């Protein structure tokens, strides 16, 4: 994934502070999602938890990141594709949680649409598949 944190921040009218750039850089580094504990481990020396939390929330609100909960209830973050924007934040692809390496992948597979019963408004629907990923299957 080729991501330029500075231009993404600009696009979303966010001031590019050093910390914001670092967080985005770290998340965009890998094509798989990164877990919050891993982020804290990697950035702990530069960014305190509260600030990190705030940055992650802003990014979610702006449609820059999306959050995926893994099977242990840990939050993972991945950069959104261009289909997300501030007023139309959706995450319509399927996620894959490998039960072997515990990584979360954003799959380029469209999530099934679920029809909500009358009176229910779904804001986020997440589709997550569990199993063995490509890399682990190859071993
Ligand atoms: Zn795996
Ligand atoms: Zn995703």
From TrEMBL:
<feature type="binding site">
    <location>
        <position position="110"/>
    </location>
    <ligand>
        <name>Fe cation</name>
    </ligand>
</feature>
<feature type="binding site">
    <location>
        <position position="101"/>
    </location>
    <ligand>
        <name>Zn(2+)</name>
    </ligand>
</feature>
<keyword id="KW-0805">Transcription regulation</keyword>
<keyword id="KW-0804">Transcription</keyword>
<dbReference type="InterPro" id="IPR002481">
    <property type="entry name" value="FUR"/>
</dbReference>
<dbReference type="GO" id="GO:0003700">
    <property type="term" value="F:DNA-binding transcription factor activity"/>
</dbReference>
<feature type="binding site">
    <location>
        <position position="89"/>
    </location>
    <ligand>
        <name>Fe cation</name>
    </ligand>
</feature>
<dbReference type="Pfam" id="PF01475">
    <property type="entry name" value="FUR"/>
</dbReference>
<feature type="binding site">
    <location>
        <position position="98"/>
    </location>
    <ligand>
        <name>Zn(2+)</name>
    </ligand>
</feature>
<comment type="similarity">
    <text>Belongs to the Fur family.</text>
</comment>
<dbReference type="GO" id="GO:0045892">
    <property type="term" value="P:negative regulation of DNA-templated transcription"/>
</dbReference>
<dbReference type="InterPro" id="IPR043135">
    <property type="entry name" value="Fur_C"/>
</dbReference>
<keyword id="KW-0479">Metal-binding</keyword>
<feature type="binding site">
    <location>
        <position position="91"/>
    </location>
    <ligand>
        <name>Fe cation</name>
    </ligand>
</feature>
<protein>
    <submittedName>
        <fullName>Transcriptional repressor</fullName>
    </submittedName>
</protein>
<keyword id="KW-0862">Zinc</keyword>
<dbReference type="GO" id="GO:0000976">
    <property type="term" value="F:transcription cis-regulatory region binding"/>
</dbReference>
<dbReference type="GO" id="GO:1900376">
    <property type="term" value="P:regulation of secondary metabolite biosynthetic process"/>
</dbReference>
<dbReference type="InterPro" id="IPR036388">
    <property type="entry name" value="WH-like_DNA-bd_sf"/>
</dbReference>
<keyword id="KW-0408">Iron</keyword>
<feature type="binding site">
    <location>
        <position position="136"/>
    </location>
    <ligand>
        <name>Zn(2+)</name>
    </ligand>
</feature>
<keyword id="KW-0678">Repressor</keyword>
<keyword id="KW-0238">DNA-binding</keyword>
<feature type="binding site">
    <location>
        <position position="133"/>
    </location>
    <ligand>
        <name>Zn(2+)</name>
    </ligand>
</feature>
<dbReference type="GO" id="GO:0008270">
    <property type="term" value="F:zinc ion binding"/>
</dbReference>
<dbReference type="InterPro" id="IPR036390">
    <property type="entry name" value="WH_DNA-bd_sf"/>
</dbReference>
